[in-house]
Every structure is written in C-alpha cells, then in structure tokens.
Fold:
Amino acid sequence: MLRAENILQLIGRTPMVRIGKLADPNGANLWAKIEYMSPGHSVKDRIAVRIIEDFEREGILKPGGTVVEATSGNTGMGLAIVCAVKDYASIFVMPDKVSDEKRHLLRAMGAEVVICPTAVEPDDPKSYYSVSKKLAEETPGAVLANQYFNPSNVQTHYDTTGPEIWEQMEGEIDAFVASMGTGGTITGVARFLKEQDPSIKIWAADPYGSILKAYKDTRKMTQGHPYLVEGIGEDIIPGNLDIDLVDEIVNVNDEDSFAMSRQMARKEGLFAGGSAGTIMRVAIDVAASMEPGQNVVTIIPDTGERYLSKHFSDGWLRDKGMLSREMVSLRRLRQMKSQELPTIVSVAPDATVREALEKMSAYNVSQLPVLDDERNLGSIRESNLLGAALEDGATMDLAVEAVMEKPFPSVEESASVAHSVQLLLRHQGIILTKDNRPVGFVTRHDIITFTDGK
Ligand SMILES: Cc1ncc(COP(=O)(O)O)c(C=O)c1O
Structure:
C-alpha cells in the first residue's frame, strides 16, 4: 500500500528477509520478519491499534479518553501513534532500566511518562504493573491497555502476524523462533501456524534471569533476577502466554544477546534491538541443527535506534563489563586512540637514533615502526636503543635502519581486537592496514586500556 488515509493503515504487513551471512550455510534457511519497518518501528504497533479499536467497539474508551499502559517503550510508542491519530491522551509507566531514547520518544509523541523501579516485586505498589493499574483507576475516562492480559494482543498476532508469515513463506515453514514479553507474538503466531501445520516447531528465546523457562520445565514459580535486555522475559506468567504452544525455551545471556544484535547490524545491515539479538542467537543455532532446504522463521521485534545509548554504545557495554574483544574492531580501537595521538607514529629509516628517541619521548611511546613511505621495514624499541647507546655513545648518530629489529606484523584493521591478541602475545605492537596500506598502530597497552576502561 503506497497511499493511506492515515498512518494507522500502514501498520503491519512487514517484509521478510533472508539471514544470509550469519546463518550456517550447512543448515536450514533462516528468515526474519522485520517488525521495525512498521510506522512505530516495533511489533507493538499491531497490538496498539487493535487494543484501542476493540475498546472503542466495546464502548470502554470514549472520545477524549486516556490510555494508560505499563510498557518497556514499544507498546507505548504504538499506543502513542494511535492516540495521536484518534485524539486520546496517553500515560505510560516504564521501568527505570528502559533507555532514555524510549522516554524521549514517548514524550515527543505527546504522552506523559512515569518511571518506576525495575528491582521490585511485581506486586509491590511501586512496580510498574501496580502504578499503571492505579493510574488507570484514578484517572477519569482512562482505560488500561493491559497488554499482558488483554486478549486483543494474542488475537492481533493470530489475525495478522501469523497469516502474513504463512503467506510470505508459502506454507514452507519448519520452525518459528520468537521471544516472550507479554507472550502475545509467540502465542498468536504459534496458534495460527500450528493450525495450518501441527509439525511446525515453536522455539522461544528467553533471557537468563527470566522465570519462564523454569516455569515451562517444572511448572513452578521461581525467583527471577535482573538482566539488561529490554522488553522480553518475565518475573510473572503473562496471561497472554500459552506456554504449551512453545515446544522449547532456550536461555541466552545479556552479553550474547548484545553481541548478536551488534553483529546483525554489521553483517546483515539489520539495525535491531537487543531482543532481536536474543532471538537471533537461538534461531541461528536452531537453523544450524536442521537440514538444508528446511525453513526457520524468526522475528525482529524493534529498531536498534532505541538503544544507541545502551548496547550500541561501547562505553555503556564496558561499564557493564560486557565489551568483549570479539565485539570491537581494530579500526574502532584506532579511532578511539587517534583522539590522543596521530593515526600512526613512525620513524623513517634514515632518521638518527637520537631523533627516534626524541620522537618516542615526545609521544610517550616505547616502540616505533620504521616506515619508508608506506613500506614496513622494521621496528625499534626504546630499551634496546638506550642499551646500545649506553655501550657506545656513537649509536646516537647512527641511522635507525642500522639498528632496527624485525618489522611489527600487520593486520587488516577490520579484524576484531580478539584476533590480535595472539599476535600481541608475541609482539610489542601491530600495524593496522587498510587495503594493504599502514593506517594505525596498536600496542598491548592500548587493548588493555580499551577493554578495561578504568
Ligand atoms: C523489544 C521487544 N522485543 C520483544 C517483545 C516481545 O513481544 P511480546 O510482548 O509479543 O511477547 C517486546 C514486548 O514487550 C519488546 O518490547
């Protein structure tokens, strides 16, 4: 549809794309439905419009009314869009772990935002569940969207997301992988798909810390613990989750979810949120365990733009102790370093030892590559030069090429920091290259400083 009467008509009907590079080529085909291509950039637009229109039909929401919801942000955005078009007021109650971007976004859409602590029990009066209920009761003309228990949520996915997937895949689906927040997506889609073909296996990806996997496996309520991925996993059993439709639940930790989310951006050009990383981590493994020619369908719930200050920020990840060396390219390290130093400090082969020592002292470094134009000829170390000069004062006036050692190894700067660790165990530094030309220099010290950050 290219022309619509209002933005609400453009919700849903999202595209499906093959995950070509991250998926194992020897496993099943892997596909992702990109929900961030909906107007509010998340899967929650679908339920927002349906919930409000069901309230209108039932006469629960009247003109000039207010919509209240407990939301980690995306449902708020969907509801805010609908409220804007339909002239309702909106109040959203969010846990304090939610990114600043999401708060700003909702305020920009004209909504009121109330923040509550994450680390309290769900029945605590300060929890975001309790606060939203109270606000809906006390505000005249208000309704609680109640996405965790409102049956319109599951019905939306049964009526739209499920049939769209079936149609896009022409009925050729062997497994579906999603996450569980309210349970709406997985329950509605699984119910629809299993009605079409009961052999389709439903997998759920769930953060460590959520109680849902333990609940499925034992039917017992356990104690959850906090985690950082937003929008999925629970410390309650959502009324909209039919856990019997889920065949298997796999836990994923924050670090793996965030690493995968970042890889999706860099390898597939899919700029998605952390929960997409949680789901994709599981979907890749599921597809790898299946046969070529089979099809695994997964879902990308929201856009990465809501997490620029979170897992897409190296500083934030480092503060959380999750900036792994696999996540950072040598180019990124060079860019950080070049704020303090020229890109590459080197010395020419015909410079004197005296000049080389002065240069090291000026830049406060203890080794330098010897470059002739762009040719990597050798290396010098301050301690060796000083030792030689101590033995024979004439060394100071020799050309560097007369005393230099073997060149430092070169690595393409697109490689990860992890890739350089083995080399740096054997060498003092490495030269970063781009298209075989030297563009930077990295030492052991740089890597330790960058990943430690203290
Ligand atoms: C970012 C994100 N991913 C996934 C989900 C899960 O979707 P559902 O609530 O339909 O289970 C949510 C829901 O809150 C979400 O905000």
About this structure: The longest strand covers residues 89-95. Residues 151-168 form the longest helix (18 residues). The domain at 1-323 is CATH 3.40.50.1100 (Rossmann fold).
